[in-house]
Amino acid sequence: MSSNHPDNTPSPEEKKLFSKVETRYSRSKEAVWADLEKDLFSNGIETKSKSFIGKVIPLYFRYVAAASVAALIGAFLFMRLSTKVVTTQFAESKTVDLPDGSSVVLNANSKLTYFPYWWNFSRELKLEGEGFFQVKKGKNFEVSSSLGSTRVLGTSFNIFSRNNGYQVYCSTGKVAVKNTQGTEKQITPGELVDIQPGKEIKVKKADEVAVLSWKQNRFSYNTTPLGKVFKDFENYYGVKILVGSKEIYNNYYTGVFSRSLSKEDALTVVCKSFNLKFNTSDNNRFVISSGD
User: Fold this and answer.
1) What is the pLDDT of residue 139?
2) 207: buried, middle or exposed (CB in 10 Å: 19+, 13-18, 0-12)?
């Protein structure tokens, strides 16, 4: 801008205009940078921080929810799959107290499996061998075995479940027994269901004293096939009994004696009734033959 005065001195109007321009840019460089940094932080960095926090919080809750679901699934699987197994040795019996106050007396050489942490949802057991059940009233109580299953609400009953058959005797209440083909029979006190591999399910009357004699530590038989007697000896004493002639199995035994007898004495008691004799090649293998 040029001045109209020959000495180049500004006129009063020009001085007034210049003063306005200088006032506009009179701030220092440091002040300008300070304002700029403030604007950048408030409008840029702060906005990004808020956006970042907004993303982190929902992600955290997702992790918490996922961990909670995983913990619930883990607890469910633990309760459902965690089992308790009770076994008895040869010549041993044992009483098992169940979570609801029900109980099982296991005969020798038997195995009971159940799910203690799942018990309040479903009373399920598996039995291999023989056991007498005293069941408290409640939800369905089911015992499964390889040849059949037994279902009750509240009662007492005996189950025999071995390779040579499946038998259920009802002592009190009512019991429903089903074979692997789905055929079901209901029995009342004094009745016994008999399931044999490949045969139809049968219901018959039974002598409770004989069926439950093992609980009194006795062998008790009433016109029982000799083959069944020898099988009982095998399961109780842990021995193997062979016969020299299949005709020996045509005999039926009646008698009562204590299971506290030794295996040799027990065999002697039975064999004398039929003029039979036995010999052994080792401590646990016996061969029965005619005494003639």
Assistant:
1) 83
2) middle
C-alpha to C-alpha distances, 74 to 35, 68, 70, 82, nearest whole angstrom = 57, 10, 6, 11
Maximal CA-CA distance, the chain: 165
Q: Count of H helices and E strands in the chain?
A: 6, 18
- Is the predicted pLDDT of residue 121 greater than 90, yes or no? no
- The H-or-E segment that residue 4 falls in is none
Say what the pLDDT of residue 215 is.
Answer: 96
- Per-residue tokens: 60: 């955290």
DSSP at 43: I
d(CA 48, CA 7): 59
Measured from the Cβ of residue 251, the count of other Cβ atoms closer than 10 Å reads 15
pTM, two decimal places: 0.71
Q: Determine the distance from the C-alpha atom of residue 129 to the mean position of all C-alpha atoms in its chain, rounded to a whole number.
A: 19
Residue range 41-89, pLDDT digits in tens: 555 544 455 554 555 556 766 667 777 777 667 665 655 568 899 999 9
CB-neighbour burial class of residue 35 (10 A; exposed 0-12, middle 13-18, buried 19+): exposed
Strands 84-87 and 111-114: antiparallel
Higher pLDDT, 70 or 266: 266
Compute the radius of gyration of the chain from its Cα atoms: 45
Question: How many CA within 13 A on the CB side of residue 35?
Answer: 5
Q: Are 152 and 168 in contact (CB under 8 A)?
A: no
* Residue 228 scores a pLDDT above 90: yes
